Amino acid sequence: MALFGFGRKPTTDIPAPKAETQSTGDDSAAEPAARSGGGLLDRLRAGLAKTARVLNTDVRDLFKREGRLVDEEFLEELRAALIRTDMGPAAAEAIVVDVRERLRARVVDPEIVIDSIRRQLLGRLEQTGAAVAMATSGPTVILVTGVNGSGKTTSIAKLARLFTREGKRVVLGAGDTFRAAAVEQLSMWAGRLGAEIVRGEPGCDPASVAHRAVARALEGSFDVCIIDTAGRLQTQSNLMQELSKIRRVIAKQIPDAPHEVLLVIDATAGQNALSQAKGFKEAAGCTGIVLAKLDGSARGGVIVPVTEQFGLPVKFVGLGESADDLEAFSPERFVAALLEGALAPAG
Ligand code: GDP
Ligand code: MG
After folding, report:
1. Closest approach atom of ligand 1 to CA 292
2. Torsions phi, psi of 257, nearest 5?
3. What pTM value is reported for the model?
4. Can you list the domains of the chain with their CATH numbers?
């Protein structure tokens, strides 16, 4: 039976939504201020603290020995520190080449090293834009995909929060019909966020849930319809075909939908993040990435190769487990948060 596809193990865990300190009802007045300018950078800074620590402490250590020359030994140490953030060998090499050119056989100038890192990272993240492709009229349909436990359902809650905060009406489709717990998890979020939810019987065809969710979005004049899916591996071709079927069903109802097919990647997945991006782009037509769990990771640099290698823009980053912990991705803010403190004295 296609429902219990090859390699899927039913699980019973319910990652319950964490209690939130803020009420969801009457915070609209206070929120816009908190969500602009400094507030965003603060949250990003907190989320990227681990990555920034690895990068900055290690890079700072290189500057410790006074009068140190930029020689091959220095450059190798620099490369190793960069690699530890998962930014990938290409970005690390480019930074090393740039520093070598600018400082060859001269005394280490921390500002030039940091400037090299900043310029290389920004250049590599340039193509990434945060905007969600919205429908020109009618509901915008967003299909959310990824491997098990990557953060799909939580990211859907976060996206729903983002849209409802903009005054948009959101309907969710509980398309992870594989686990009853997944439907419950999304239902809890929907209740908490004041979003409507369309759900089916456990084990039913996810395409039928998607169909009903889109139908509800159309008939109820919703602005956004976000559809959850069961976790799957990029290598499971039958399950990737299931995603194609969901897409076809949606496209029959709204010709240019789904407007986005987001791939949620766990930032701690390391090199596997790259193979997920490749596999889901090719087999599921993903249009953008949500990089979740950036807060728990010392390897936030993975955003660089993910963006660069597959031409898939990172649209959002997940920075925690509550509905507010989502950031529209901005290369400038990301690099600023990452390099902040790089020149401050250690300790
Ligand atoms: P799914 O299987 O892809 O739907 O993953 P879930 O949304 O259920 O998330 C799996 C676990 O990761 C849950 O415990 C979430 O609370 C947690 N999680 C999701 N996103 C984030 C994030 O951005 N940061 C942290 N720290 N945890 C997250
Ligand atoms: Mg889920």
Report:
1. 23
2. -95, 160
3. 0.84
4. 42-128 (1.20.120.140), 140-329 (3.40.50.300)
